Amino acid sequence: xxxxxxxYLKLNSSYLFSDIAKRVEAFRKAHPEREIIRLGIGDVTRxxxxxxxxxxxxATDEMASDxxxxxxxxxxxxxxxxxxxxxxxxxxxxxxxxxxxIFISDGAKCDTGNFQELFSTDARIAIPDPVYPxxxxxxxxxxxxxxxxxxxxxxxxxxxxxxxxxxxxxxPSEHVDLVYLCFPNNPTGATITHARLxxxxxxxxxxRAVILYDAAYVAFIRDDSLPQxxxxxxxxxxxxxxxxxxxxxxxxxxxxxxxxxxxASCVAYDSSGRPQSLHAxxxxxxxxxFNGVCYMVQRAxxxxxxxEGARQVREINDFYLANARLIVNAxxxxxxxxxxxxxSPYVWVDVxxxxxxxxxxxxxxAGVVCxxxxxxGRCGEGFVRIxxxxxxxxxxxxxxxxxxxxxxx
Length: 409
Ligand code: MLT
Known about the structure:
The protein has 409 residues and is an alpha/beta fold. It has helices spanning 16-30, 50-62, 79-90, 108-114, 133-141, 194-207, 246-250, 278-289, 295-302, 307-333, 355-366, 392-408, and strands at 37-38, 102-105, 125-129, 148-149, 152-153, 157-160, 178-182, 210-214, 240-245, 258-261, 267-269, 275-277, 337-340, 346-350, 368-369, 371-372, 383-387. A 7-stranded mixed β-sheet has the order 2-10-9-8-7-3-6, sandwiched between helices. A 4-stranded antiparallel β-sheet has the order 13-14-17-16. Strands 1-15 form a two-stranded parallel sheet. Strand 4 and strand 5 (152-153) form a beta hairpin. The longest helix has 27 residues, at 307-333. 45% of the residues are buried. The chain binds D-malate.
């Protein structure tokens, strides 16, 4: 008799964003005449930057001739892209990262979900609350937690992120082996300073722990005093892995391209206490389970680093940030406390009520989709996340309807 991995049975029946999509679809079927505006899942709406499209086309043409055709590339990605990443995203900011420490992939969701495979099942993990659900669910699937009770999995150390700590948790007071951090944060939009991030790096070094640092939203940082990479912090190379993505940076949600940085000096330990290279282990995993990102997509990603590509990317992200400002202003005027939305495309709104009820209210009365904070963890209850990824017209129309609905409610 074949048996299943019963850890899957501990999971909530569906993934947060699939659950929301189902509810929205049910509403659409019940009210086919109503126009729905989506400020829920963080999916970009603007076209790819022109420089990326041009590179995409010309790479496609290369595939049309035997002389320039590309079959399998290196699983870790093409050198042309990894060199640009190392130079522009890291060395230009004083972070010592080399091209062979970069693994090009098809998404930060996949990489943040898969990286936990390298650690023992009994590794103790710390996860912020609220949090991007992938970090939690992938550890549940791997058997690193107990059951779901009172809105939390037993066995996880939860790092509470609330208005009281500006949504930036302190290092834990008890021992943990693996920590997930995400800045600019999904879902709260919070950012972290050099000093607070340095405290985390010092803690990881002192505890022989590893930090998995998700920087998928780095392209929205406008405050130059903030760190863009954990590798700007001295000593981080030995204790941190960083995830980046072109999805939000350059509109690649449908095109799929991301990368993970695993420094050669970053280690975890075997059961005899001997240090083992995470770079070697991830390389082994990546080459076994992944066959590389399509050549044209990597050429398109490379174009992000040309002067015109960089300018176009900034213009598009400034556009979303202007949407975020409109969202903050509208909800603040309605009397709600808002967080994020400054160096982040997400606005975290304190709605002072059950977050799924508020989700239903906005959908029903305004035809607007948000993400209920409770879906990100117990500390998310009482909040909703509003995404700035939409057209200006879409955001303005959504906010007009929200104003009318909430004044009535
Ligand atoms: C989100 O809305 O949190 C993200 O779009 C989900 C993702 O990137 O997988």
